[in-house]
Design a protein that fits this description.
It is built from 14 helices and 18 strands. The protein has 431 residues and is an alpha/beta fold. It has two domains: 249 residues, 3-Layer(aba) Sandwich (Rossmann fold), CATH 3.40.50; 160 residues, Four-carbon acid sugar kinase, nucleotide binding domain (Molybdenum Cofactor Biosythetic Enzyme, Chain A). The strands form two sheets. It has a 15-stranded mixed β-sheet with strand order 9-10-5-11-4-1-3-2-16-17-18-15-12-14-13, with helices on both faces. A three-stranded antiparallel β-sheet has the order 6-7-8, with no helix packed on it. β9, α6 and β10 form a beta-alpha-beta unit.
Amino acid sequence: MGAAGPASIVFYGDDFTGATDALGTAARAGLRTLLFLAVPDDAQLQRAGALDCIGIAGAARSMPPDTMRAELAPVAALFRRTGARVLHYKCCSTFDSAPEVGSIGVAVEALRPAVAQPWIAVIGGQPELQRYCLFGNLFAAAGYGGAVCRIDRHPTMSRHPVTPMHEADLRRHLALQGFEGVQSLPYLAYARAAAAVQADIETLVGQGTGAILFDVAQQSDLAVIGAALQARAQAGPLLAVGPSSVLQALAQQRAPAAPVPVAAAEGPVLVLAGSLSPVTARQVAAARSYEVVQLDARALADAAPSHLDAVASQLSARLAAGRNVLACTAPGAADPEVPALALAKAGGLLLARVLAATPLKRVGVAGGDTSSHAVQALDAWGLSYLAALSPGAALCRLHSDAPSLDGCEILLKGGQMGAEDVFERLVHGTR
């Protein structure tokens, strides 16, 4: 990597909201991190300077298998080139994926050749986001601060429009995607000495186990897991799969960065809410500082240039008049006749049109797929972390060679993420 310095971790986020959560997690843990919007070349790495952690934001969770393989091959090549010790495939904390779209099994197949270790670590929970893995089964809160449900009974994730979760046992869920032979290490093991946990791992690996699923019942479990992963990574590069808790575990020995308050926005704010989740619906309802513009989901998904231009002109006019604008699809259940990915891609085209007409200093995007396609539609190459608006909702700085975009502050928020007033915080800050 030359002057860029030897990073110890390379992570790939399978959607942009998850990638920014990983970026924020690494930055708050004291890791020098930059999130690239595509696999960087040597010149871009040189320009970034010394990094502890290199992130790549992608959209693999919305891709079919062959497209995923093509997407991830350059990531594997980058990892080998950097000499990093851990390659982290950052999936959603709810593990929503399917054999035909966003397959974690396909991701493992594509990335496994890049590492030397014969086994793969799977981290099954992220307590700060109320995601827990107990005896291999995944549980998640129904919204920020909501009741914790088994993932196959979760009111939103069990009905996800693209990748509904019908299996709570992550070993079975991953096996359906071709990722077989995953063995569980229960959280009860962490109460013993670290050497005993290492011995458990050695035993499983010695028995030919191809992957170990680590339970996560509480935040302190991550320290035990992190020590085990660090020790194993010293023996050879390791592939780890899971949410941002992988980075939390690996950075246990780092001095965390001090929390940074967010100042109020300078100028009008635009939020594009493509997510149809109940959590986002409550956040939209609480956004009292915005003019809300309802988008016609069917017309938007058709992506006719004339319709996109007309909507962009309407939004730009309100923003130019100094008003905060929240553009959203109608709340409630997803329309089965509107393809979710088509809607997400059209949202990206709409955002690019608005920002071309009316440059802004702060924007927000809600929805994992919508965020991925929105950022991909912009002429930008990277993101750096600024501050947390709420758990799972990071405010980032956009890096672009286009002066009108460079420095723009952007919130990318998944449908299940963020406090109820997160859009209000985007306008008024956290000070």
